[in-house]
Automatic annotation (TrEMBL):
GO terms for biological process: thiamine diphosphate biosynthetic process; thiamine metabolic process. Keywords: ATP-binding, Kinase, Nucleotide-binding, Transferase. Its EC number is 2.7.6.2. One of its GO terms (molecular function) is ATP binding. It comes from Tianweitania sediminis. Residues 143-202 form the Thiamin pyrophosphokinase thiamin-binding domain. This is Thiamine diphosphokinase.
Length: 211
């Protein structure tokens, strides 16, 4: 297994949980995402992008990091280019740090849909801002280690059929049409497990940052 952490341009709150999730990983930064390197105490091996979101101060501060520049007028986001480079270097598992929040909600949407595509192709993916985690669901049963009372939602990107156990409001092979709010705002009550019987979905959990 080869774990890569990709530093993206969204929000970040460093937590012990997130720190433990990226231990031993290789790190690639996408444009302004490199600002998270100091907070996470990591050294990127590569800095990717057109650098239109990185000001002169940040570029000077991180001048030691090798760069792979791309033109501003390109077909892919800096984050997707970073993902492609990680996969080309053997990544089998990705942690997308800074995947949520920030000034570009369209990028956050892309990160979620890209994670679904990658997971279906066999790459394990975690999206995180420290206080939020996203896990793409593939067909079958998946267990989670979230503490009791953790708020979570199952976001359907198509019509889905889903079972949820260990939650305040469990479901059993429940059809959920695309656009329904049925699987939003649930709470963990014991050992949470989600089984996706059909469709495409992502679990989004709101992580306590009190510890």
């Amino acid at each position: 297994m080869s774990l890569f952490t990709l530093l993206l341009g969204g929000d970040l709150q460093v937590t012990p949980r997130l720190a433990s999730q990226i231990v031993g990983s290789r790190v690639i930064a996408a444009d302004s995402g490199i600002r998270h390197a100091g907070a996470l105490d990591v050294e990127p091996e590569l800095w990717v992008g057109d650098f239109d979101s990185s000001d002169d101060r940040l570029q000077a501060l991180m001048a030691r990091v090798p760069r792979k520049p791309f033109p501003a007028e390109k077909d892919f986001t800096d984050g997707e280019l970073a993902v492609d480079l990680a996969l080309a270097n053997g990544a089998t598992e990705l942690v997308l740090v800074g995947a949520f929040g920030g000034p570009r909600p369209d990028h956050a949407f892309l990160h979620m849909t890209m994670a679904l595509r990658l997971a279906e192709a066999g790459t394990r993916v975690l999206l995180s801002s420290g206080h939020q985690e996203g896990v793409p669901l593939t067909a079958g049963l998946r267990g989670f280690d979230y503490p009791e009372n953790t708020l979570f939602s199952v976001l359907g990107f198509t019509d889905v059929v889903v079972s949820i156990k260990g939650a305040r409001w469990p479901l059993s092979k429940r059809p959920v049409p695309f656009g329904s709010s049925l699987t939003l705002s649930n709470f963990v009550s014991s050992s949470l497990s989600v089984e996706l019987h059909s469709g495409q979905a992502l679990l989004l959990a709101h992580i306590s940052t009190q510890d």
